[in-house]
Design a protein that fits this description.
This is Putative phage related protein. This protein has helices at residues 3-18, 27-36, 80-94, 103-111, 143-150; strands at 41-45, 73-77, 116-122, 128-134. The protein has 166 residues and is an alpha+beta fold. The strands form 2 sheets. A two-stranded antiparallel ribbon has the order 1-2. A two-stranded antiparallel ribbon has the order 3-4. The longest helix has 16 residues, at 3-18. The model is unreliable at 162-166 (pLDDT under 50).
Length: 166
C-alpha cells in the first residue's frame, strides 16, 4: 500500500541529482539552460568554405563561391562540458553585485577548468573591459567555448545601472 509513495519519493530524490548543474547531462542541462537564460545553440561564422584570395586551400578550384543568399554563419550545439561552463558563468554573473572588487572571484569561478583566465581592466571612463587569456596555449581551449565568448555568452553587465561601476 505504501509502495507508490516510496516510488514517488525515490523519483523526487532522483530529480535533485538529475538537475544538479554538476551532474546534469543532455536534456536536463538544456532545461537548466532555459531556467538560467542561456541557450545551448550558438551562432558560428562559417569559415574555410567560401572562396578567398588570401587563404590557403580556398583559392581557384578549392573554395566555393558565396552567393548572395548563402549564409555567413551557421548554428553549433555546445557540448555538455562547454555548456556547463557557460551556465555556471551566467549564474555567477547573475549574482554579481556590480562592484569591481567582487568581479575577479566570479570570473575565476566561472572559468575554472576551462583553460581560460580573465583580467579586468578599468578604462577610467566609468567602464571596464574584461580580457580573456588562455592558461597555456589557445589551441588547448575548446573552440566551442571561444565561439560562445565571441557571441557574448560571458558578457558582464552591472545590475546597478548608470554609474554603477566602482
Amino acid at each position: 500500500m505504501t509502495r507508490p509513495l516510496i516510488d514517488v519519493a525515490a523519483a523526487t530524490r532522483g530529480l535533485i541529482t538529475a538537475f544538479d548543474i554538476d551532474s546534469a547531462v543532455g536534456v536536463q542541462l538544456d532545461i537548466l539552460g532555459l531556467w538560467i537564460g542561456r541557450s545551448r545553440v550558438v551562432s558560428q561564422p562559417i569559415s574555410g568554405v567560401y572562396f578567398s584570395w588570401d587563404t590557403d586551400g580556398l583559392g581557384y578550384d578549392q573554395g566555393v563561391w558565396q552567393g548572395p543568399y548563402d549564409p555567413d554563419s551557421g548554428y553549433m550545439y555546445l557540448s555538455d562540458e562547454t555548456y556547463r561552463v557557460i551556465l555556471k558563468a551566467k549564474i555567477a554573473i547573475n549574482n554579481w553585485d556590480g562592484r569591481n572588487d567582487s568581479l575577479p572571484a566570479i570570473l575565476d569561478a566561472a572559468t575554472a577548468g576551462s583553460g581560460l583566465r580573465m583580467q579586468i581592466v578599468d578604462n577610467h571612463d566609468m567602464t571596464i573591459s574584461v580580457w580573456v587569456f588562455p592558461d597555456t596555449d589557445i589551441s588547448d581551449v575548446s573552440r566551442e567555448l571561444i565561439a560562445a565568448i565571441k557571441q557574448g555568452y560571458l558578457t558582464v553587465k552591472s545590475r546597478r545601472g548608470m554609474g554603477g561601476w566602482h
